[in-house]
Design goal:
Elements: E1 2-3, E2 21-22, H1 30-43, E3 47-52, E4 61-66, E5 71-74, E6 79-82, E7 105-107, E8 112-114, H2 119-134, E9 139-144, E10 153-158, E11 164-167, E12 170-173
Parallel strand pairs: 2-6
Antiparallel strand pairs: 1-12, 3-4, 3-9, 4-5, 5-6, 7-8, 9-10, 10-11, 11-12
Length: 179
């Protein structure tokens, strides 16, 4: 693995100014909310985020689905929350094959991850499949628990770009074609 400066799509930590409205729908984006929420639950992930381009929007829309948290949908300077368990009248694309694996052993200082045989590749393929469903240059980023609560593991993917792994604060761009 080699470090990189930035994880695609992970720059969504800026909070919009002003109050955040609670809504029961985000219209055409409801299907993506359902997709991310289902992926999050099947994978046992901490967080699933999609960064998607929307025609007529000032920049990408960020859909951030955290475990047991409201789903946040963010545009340039506006954000709304949907209750996590809200029933949405939307048909989501089929969720990519993903299964929950035991927490990975990690050593952040050494940049090492120990997983069940093929575990890291399984998560990488699932996140790549999620990004493919989002299409184009849209980004999928999923964060998983590890045995060190201070050092989560994130996997991000976009189109044909190499997968990027984040271990705590360090990012690693994988070799093209991996996994």
């Amino acid at each position: 693995m080699r470090p990189v400066d930035d994880v695609p799509g992970a720059g969504g930590d800026e909070q919009p100014e002003g109050p955040i409205d609670v809504v029961a729908s985000v219209g055409a984006l409801d299907a993506l909310v359902v997709l991310l929420r289902d992926f999050l639950h099947r994978a046992g992930a901490l967080r699933a985020v999609a960064l998607v381009e929307q025609p007529g929007s000032d920049g990408p829309v960020v859909i951030d689905c955290g475990r047991l948290l409201p789903v946040e949908v963010r545009w340039a300077d506006h954000a709304v929350h949907l209750p996590h368990a809200i029933e949405l009248d939307a048909v989501a694309p089929a969720v990519p094959h993903v299964q929950q694996l035991p927490r990975f052993e990690v050593d952040a200082e050494a940049g090492e991850i120990a997983s069940p045989l093929g575990g890291l590749e399984h998560y990488a393929l699932a996140v790549k499949s999620l990004a493919a469903i989002l299409g184009g240059e849209n980004v999928a980023l999923v964060t998983f628990e590890t045995t060190d609560p201070e050092t989560p593991l994130s996997v991000s993917a976009r189109g044909d770009d190499p997968v990027v792994l984040s271990l705590g604060d360090e990012q690693y761009e994988m070799e093209p074609g991996w996994p």
